[in-house]
């Protein structure tokens, strides 16, 4: 029933998908929930702030972590460093091999790989390297209303999300280096693709699905055709993709709740280690 009890706006939308639709469906569902007194009385649960280094953002590409990896063996163009950015929520990763990393290179990377491809992030977290906190990049971020946060020597774990991703990227690159030698920069695209299409433990979803609302077709599905590959229909595909766009907010909401549970477990483990 349209006016049945609901937990939040996504549940209301889900009830509407049973057979009703109009152009302002989502907006009306949000307005309905905002007027519901019973919904307002339900408290929201937030993660404990006992360990401030654990950060979470429920909106994609709003909090991004930047870091520098390397040096690697010299690749074509004298490239030996890797500039990495990861979204704290979806775990989507962007990376670019560079010969040297300057303020200008960092700004170009953020503009091209984050802003123009997705959106202007609300916050960027990085270490205290001069490439991230020089006058030019500070003024540039202020102009885009991007808040900068820096990790300290005492608490480098504050950018731990990027550190974990870097380890995965480095492992993938090193494995490929055994075959391709100094061509690690050329293999980077494949490593990024594998990372983006693999479910992450904290969200239970792939970064690709949380960004685009659907799963990417990967080579394994072509070698041994998956159900969706074998039963592909152009007409059904378009309808399902449109449906996925409606469902993406609920998908992100579920992933956010998983992240909250995952981080609560991490906090408990952290507190036990500190006490012991």
TrEMBL record:
Single GO BP term: DNA integration
GO molecular function: nucleic acid binding
Classification via InterPro entries: Integrase_cat-core (IPR001584), Retrovirus_Pol_polyprotein (IPR050951), RNaseH-like_sf (IPR012337), RNaseH_sf (IPR036397)
Organism whose genome encodes this protein: Sesamum latifolium
Protein's recorded name: Integrase catalytic domain-containing protein
Domain Integrase catalytic: 54-215
Domain of life where this protein originates: Eukaryota
Pfam family, one: rve
């Amino acid at each position: 029933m349209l006016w049945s009890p609901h937990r939040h706006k996504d549940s209301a939308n889900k009830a509407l998908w049973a057979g009703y639709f109009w152009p302002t469906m989502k907006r009306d569902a949000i307005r309905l929930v905002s007027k519901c007194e019973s919904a307002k009385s339900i408290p929201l649960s937030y993660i404990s702030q006992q360990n401030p280094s654990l950060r979470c953002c429920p909106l994609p590409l709003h909090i991004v972590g930047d870091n520098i990896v390397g040096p690697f063996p010299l690749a074509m163009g004298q490239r030996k460093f890797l500039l990495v950015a990861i979204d704290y929520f979806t775990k989507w990763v962007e990376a670019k091999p560079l010969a040297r990393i300057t303020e200008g290179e960092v700004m170009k990377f953020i503009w091209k790989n984050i802003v123009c491809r997705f959106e202007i992030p609300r916050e960027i977290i990085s270490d205290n390297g001069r490439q991230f906190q020089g006058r030019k990049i500070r003024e540039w971020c202020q102009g885009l209303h991007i808040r900068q946060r820096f990790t300290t020597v005492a608490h480098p774990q504050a950018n731990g999300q990027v550190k974990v991703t870097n380890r995965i990227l480095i492992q993938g690159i090193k494995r490929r280096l055994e075959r391709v030698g100094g061509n690690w920069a050329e293999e980077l695209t494949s490593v990024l693709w594998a990372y983006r299409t693999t479910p992450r433990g904290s969200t239970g979803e792939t970064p690709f699905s949380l960004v685009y609302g659907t799963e990417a077709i990967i080579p394994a599905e072509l070698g041994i055709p998956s159900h969706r590959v074998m039963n592909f229909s152009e007409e059904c595909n378009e309808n399902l993709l449109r449906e996925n766009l409606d469902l993406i907010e609920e998908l992100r909401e579920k992933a956010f709740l998983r992240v909250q549970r995952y981080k609560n477990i991490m906090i408990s483990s952290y507190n036990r280690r500190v006490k012991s």
